[in-house]
């Protein structure tokens, strides 16, 4: 497997607070990877390290086979930062010029075409654009760099639902047109479900689960049945989440094997519930509902 | 990169050089006028040996004196505040550093172009203003010989260029460290004024050991002071004037009509007057020393800004109160791409080193 991002024991500390701890992660090439986790889980920290804005406190991080560092090492990485910052005083056309001057691999045709299609006024100042337009402009600058890897840090967090949909739509078009790997973070699974085919769940600064979305959905089962003793479950079951009443048990189980025990009612689990189960640490605090698939 | 820097700086540059140009028009006209009086006097019998007409002529343009001197006095600090301090701080404030530093340009190159374009322009502007001011005051200075005194030394010749380098570097470093535009600007102003005043009031007099003229006090203190002062080389800077009694201790104020001994002057016996001064021929060594010290301080601050920005201090979030490393989760997941270390083993060996590089954790919010 060819990895675009590979982390080993990666940790980051701000002062005395650990923002990311012992993160081992390998993100395969050619995928659209969703990085999901609650606020403060370390998503931004991981992505900022991946684009060389932050140095790791310890551990190793390779992006496209190199240590990320501002400069030529970043030529292959396009980055849309959290809040999609653009220069308030520079026009849309100025932003494209900026990209052209600062990137040897810049594709002016692609940038112009995107600006035209998004109906952005080239003379409009960055500060006068709507949030959605700012995000689109930031994405345009990142994409026209013709990166091998596109990193987006909560790009839609501050957008209204329509702008959010349009942004993700644009992102999917880019993925379809270009040979680019994408890492996209969000604290909302619904955003990722639409575009991602690979998922990394980051909770409390640690990677809780990572894998192909289809595979995750296929190997996770929501079981409900009469109360079961947790010690007597099949050995190959990995219980992600369990909630019990005196009479009933509800489990989210990960296993490659089919569920044979007829005392369990087996439901498929949705991506959102799956992620929520991994995010919630305590038992029984979350009510999972199955979905028909 | 040069294009981007220029694009972001051009409005300021236009304002600065537009202002200089506006100031240059009356300066050149009246400066030529003053020189006309000087040459007229040199050949005319009526004012030979007395350049007063030139001075009188210049005196009519008191507003220009204030404008030129005032501009040169405050412009280094103003440029440090408005050009240099926001240079990096605004990128942090607006979050655009994440856009700028993730293009294919290294941070060293980014900063180098900023420093080269904005720094050089600022220093050049102040150099031009200083040259203009020095030229305009030329006829007056050659008569009064007081370029060396506190109020004019810092607004003539090369010293302002040193201040410009220092103020720019100070603004840059404040922006790099503080990362907020307004606090960085305030810090730049405060530190610049303090450093400039400390040099002017306490340090400059010691660039070379001052000379002292000693005179007896026989006829009332002030009278003697004038007599001694008249013997000083032209253009000298009187650093201090004090009285010493026979035993070498500083003496109090002597003389004056109310003094009990004013009739006999008996209480003045043994008291000498000491006039400490820097001779006028030290003006240029002092100018270059002032320029050199401030330029060196500026270069050190620029070097510090590089060090801080490129390797050691990088933007992060504000630390939260909970400072404990989270324990490893008990949930067991065993995907091939995922692994956890054993809890407790995660205490990093590099704690000390990391603390050293981030001693206070005072990261500002991204």
Task: Write up what this structure looks like.
The complex is a heterodimer of chains A (293) and B (366). With 293 residues, chain A is of the alpha/beta class. Chain A has 2 domains: 3-204, P-loop containing nucleotide triphosphate hydrolases (Rossmann fold, 3-Layer(aba) Sandwich), CATH 3.40.50.300; 218-279. Chain A has 8 helices and 13 strands. Chain A has a 6-stranded mixed sheet, sandwiched between helices. A 4-stranded antiparallel sheet of chain A has the order 11-12-10-13. The radius of gyration of chain A is 21 Å and the shape is elongated. Mean pLDDT of chain B is 79; it is low at 315-366. The longest helix of chain B has 42 residues, at 2-43. By secondary structure, chain B is mainly alpha-helical. Chain B folds into 2 domains: 2-206 and 287-312, no CATH class; 211-282, no CATH class. Chain B has helices spanning 2-43, 52-59, 62-94, 97-100, 107-144, 150-153, 159-178, 181-203, 221-230, 283-312, 351-357, and strands spanning 211-216, 237-244, 272-278. At the A-B interface, strand 1, strand 2, helix 1, strand 5 and helix 2 of A face helix 1, helix 4 and helix 5 of B.
Secondary structure elements and pairings:
The complex is a heterodimer of chains A (293) and B (366).
Chain A: E1 3-14, E2 17-28, E3 32-36, H1 43-50, E4 58-63, E5 77-80, H2 92-102, H3 108-117, H4 131-143, E6 149-152, H5 161-177, E7 181-186, H6 189-195, E8 198-203, E9 206-212, H7 213-219, E10 220-226, E11 238-244, E12 248-254, E13 265-268, H8 271-279
Parallel strand pairs in A: 3-7, 3-8, 5-6, 6-7
Antiparallel strand pairs in A: 1-2, 1-4, 8-9, 10-12, 10-13, 11-12
Chain B: H1 2-43, H2 52-59, H3 62-94, H4 97-100, H5 107-144, H6 150-153, H7 159-178, H8 181-203, E1 211-216, H9 221-230, E2 237-244, E3 272-278, H10 283-312, H11 351-357
Antiparallel strand pairs in B: 1-3, 2-3
